[in-house]
Amino acid sequence: MSCKKAQQVFEQKEISIADKTDARKEKIDSDQAWTILAAAGMIHIGKGKKSISFEPTPENKEKILKAAMGRSGNLRAPTLKIKKDIYIGFNETLYDSI
Q: Is residue 20 in a domain?
């Protein structure tokens, strides 16, 4: 559901997606996710009406992965990389800042 909401925001703001991956077909486990997330400037994670931000440091690794990974053990969708920052999940306030 949140991917559909995110897509609506992209259409309203006329944001085009350069590279798209279907999370149901291409799984990203916690090791792969950390490789991606560790290179980010900041990580912003939205869950419902709440959002949290992290600086990707080894000390924050477990907290970040706990918030970023879904129940299936896959990186949550939608996940966006905008410049050096990564946005995970959907949160209206967070997406308003994009």
A: no
